[in-house]
Write a structure and sequence with these properties.
three-stranded mixed beta sheet; TIM Barrel; alpha/beta; seven-stranded mixed beta sheet; 10 strands
Length: about 375
């Protein structure tokens, strides 16, 4: 049962100290009492959208476990508020906390489409899949207001360049028209996250995401329109959703997913403190058991930085999860394959460029 001081609609229940700062702040009980007596809100719990102006937008990924070489993120921070999110730690680079700041202070890159176009015009660039949302969800609530993701997809279509999308939001269907055009040329792959079939679990684990029903419907609509979907059953958290591997795989397959992948949760950096605080407030009776099982997957620690091991874990529990995933692939994905994206169209269209900075003539 949740505690009385639980912050509804948020994953993190605190702001952790920024590791790059010498000083930190805390909310004291006497301040909270003062606010109560004065009839004031101690924390309005509002989301802020803050514009930033980076010089580049495409990032090269050096992490061999990431499964991608290049990514771009129209937004930093994510209002979805998934309590386990590995991207929380990156918010500290911007001067904020990995906790509540990560989901309430959203940095917006309105120049992203222009920066992407400049990047794709480089003569030295050779087509490689660029993944939208390698860090934070490109279809989080801010996208409804800013439309940056849609504008970037228009750039990818213009250049006939392959793009991947990682999301857990049904808002992707807003851009079905562009996705269908990309799919015609085998330029798009969607990776849609489904973490649990339980709405009760989803509400506290991923508080500002769409329902599980809506996510499965999204997979179905994309698949019906020949847009290839890989389901991401991630992260698998021992004691919370680890019993759902088989039913999750069955559900996404029945709705048209062509493949699935999974990771075992790891709680690096500030995420360990954030997750443990959240767990003790939402599931106090099972908190110790869950934390212990996570440690058993990562050599006795909540965090794990070992390349090749950190995403799947080790030990008995991790092996059980691995076995269930193997069985699920055999039962539900035996004759399914995710197609490779087309790297040739972008290269072929380079001959239409008058010069490296000139206007493309693709149409």
């Amino acid at each position: 049962m949740k505690q009385e001081n639980y912050i509804k609609g948020r994953g993190a229940q605190q702001n952790t100290k920024n590791r790059f700062f010498e000083f930190s702040s805390e909310v004291r009980d006497d301040f909270l009492e003062f606010c109560r007596l004065e009839g004031e809100e101690a924390d309005a719990n509002k989301t802020q959208y803050l514009p930033i102006f980076p010089r580049t937008i495409v990032n090269k990924i050096s992490n061999p476990d990431a499964g991608m070489l290049y990514s771009m993120n129209p937004y930093q921070g994510c209002e979805h508020g998934c309590v386990y999110c590995f991207a929380r730690n990156t918010h500290e680079f911007w001067g904020y906390s990995a906790g509540l700041d990560f989901e309430r202070k959203i940095l917006v890159k309105e120049d992203a489409p222009k920066l992407l176009e400049a990047f794709l015009k480089r003569k030295s660039w050779r087509a490689q899949t660029i993944v939208l949302s390698g860090n934070t969800d490109c279809y989080q609530p801010a996208e409804k207001q800013y439309g940056i993701t849609r504008a970037c997809l228009e750039v990818f279509l213009k250049f006939r360049h392959p793009v991947g999308i990682i999301t857990k939001n049904a808002m992707i269907l807003r851009d079905l028209d562009i996705l269908k055009e990309l799919a015609k040329h085998q330029l798009i792959g969607v990776h849609l996250s489904v973490t649990s079939l339980s709405e009760d679990t989803r509400r506290i684990l991923e508080p500002r995401t769409v329902s599980i029903k809506k996510r499965l419907e999204t997979i179905a609509v994309l698949s019906e329109n020949n847009i290839p979907v890989n389901a991401m059953l991630a992260p698998i958290i021992p004691g919370i959703n680890s019993h759902e591997v088989l039913p999750l795989a069955k559900a996404v397959s029945e709705n048209g997913a062509l493949s699935f992948g999974y990771t075992v949760v790891r709680l690096n950096g500030a995420i360990g403190q954030i997750f443990e605080d959240w767990l003790r407030k939402t599931m106090p009776d099972k908190a110790e058991k869950v934390l212990q099982q996570i440690r058993e997957c990562h050599g006795g620690q909540l965090n794990d930085s070992r390349i090749g091991i950190r995403t799947k874990g080790e030990g008995v529990i991790a092996q059980q999860i691995r076995d269930m995933a193997r069985l699920a692939k055999h039962q539900y994905f035996k004759d399914k394959n995710l197609p490779k994206l087309n790297m040739n169209l972008y290269e072929e269209n380079k001959i239409h460029w008058p010069n490296a900075q000139g206007q493309l003539k693709l149409f």
